[in-house]
Amino acid sequence: MTNIKEKLRRIFSHDIGIDLGTANTLVYLRGRGIVINEPSVVAVNQKTGQVVAVGAEAKAMLGRTPAHISAIRPLVDGVISDFEVTEEMLAYLLGKAQESSRKILAPRVVVGVPSGITSVEIRAVRDAARNAGAGMVHIVEEPMAAAIGMRLPIHDPVGSMVVDIGGGTSDIAVLSLGGVVRAKNLRVAGDRFNQDIISYVRNQFKILIGEKTAEAVKFVATALIPEGDTLEARVKGRDLVTGLPREVIITDADIREALSASIEALVLGIREVLETTPPEVIADVIERGIFLAGGGALLHGLPELLESELNIPIHVASDPLSAVARGTGVILEDIEKFRDILIENEDDLPQKI
Ligand code: ADP
Ligand code: MG
């Protein structure tokens, strides 16, 4: 039940949910849904310190900027590596989200952060959001937000396992009774897969390709479980010997080879969390399965591969890229119901391994 005070607050200020991802930032406006979905990239003019572009426009500049402009990804490995740029990005996004109807009070903001983030980093996120114009700032761990976005029964005495494979990190978490029972944060996710492809192509074909090309290859040529047809991607890169452009064909077999060590690390990470999870909760996970979110969940063949490696059913969130943002939206609809899962005090962080 919303009381009068809460109703008034809603009239005079916006409620905004933010998934501050390493690869993509999504913004949810209560009553409207997801209003912004942009790459987490900011282009800064180094001479003036001014922000030149944010989001897709800035991403297009990655690897192509003149000397005085740098395209920065302010979140590396899921944590804020560049505080000022993160703040600028948040200010821009909060402004844009409220563009059509600015209200008189500062917005209430729910921000998703990776599990495994330290209290110092949480304080940094909170400060960045406040400086960017937020009023009340509530922090939620991303796997919890993803679980809420997937409508998992996180408040019930039943274990749910969520694996959120993003750009910089994969968050593995077991949730029950509104808390994080076990969690692990791996630096093996989408960015690493791109790097794996770059290294493989360099070693095998002796050509150098850029990160964007590697990502494009990952999208079209991945089949972690071999299928009937061979998948192929033509890529152009710089020949390491002659220095001239050269084209090669990369197949799904190449990608399997390129990604094998990282995929193994991901499987191992999930196993480690399972091994330390209390038996009652494990029984729930084995019965109910593991829920995948994040862009990495779209890696072709990954659900099937995990299912056969772990012998546990795998479910992929519908639209895994927006699960966390949708979760922040569900929280905003009824913040009292989710009060217990929000991190209000940085010194009171849940247990992790
Ligand atoms: P973050 O939460 O860290 O911002 P996201 O959940 O937005 O990350 O996922 C971004 C990652 O997902 C990127 O590394 C991207 O390459 C990867 N990704 C997105 N779509 C696909 C796809 N169809 N196949 C494989 N990987 C994908
Ligand atoms: Mg994410």
Question: Could you explain how this protein is built, in words?
Answer:
The chain has eleven helices and 18 strands. It has helices spanning 4-12, 56-59, 83-97, 119-131, 142-149, 190-205, 211-221, 252-275, 279-288, 302-310, 323-333, and strands spanning 15-20, 24-29, 33-39, 42-45, 51-54, 69-72, 75-76, 79-80, 108-113, 137-141, 160-165, 170-176, 179-186, 207-208, 232-239, 245-251, 290-293, 314-316. The strands form five sheets. Strands 3-2-1-9-10 form a five-stranded mixed sheet, sandwiched between helices. Strands 13-12-11-17-18 form a five-stranded mixed sheet, with helices on both faces. A hairpin with a 5-residue loop joins β15 and β16 (245-251). α6 (190-205) packs across α7 (211-221). Bound molecules: adenosine-5'-diphosphate and magnesium ion (MG).
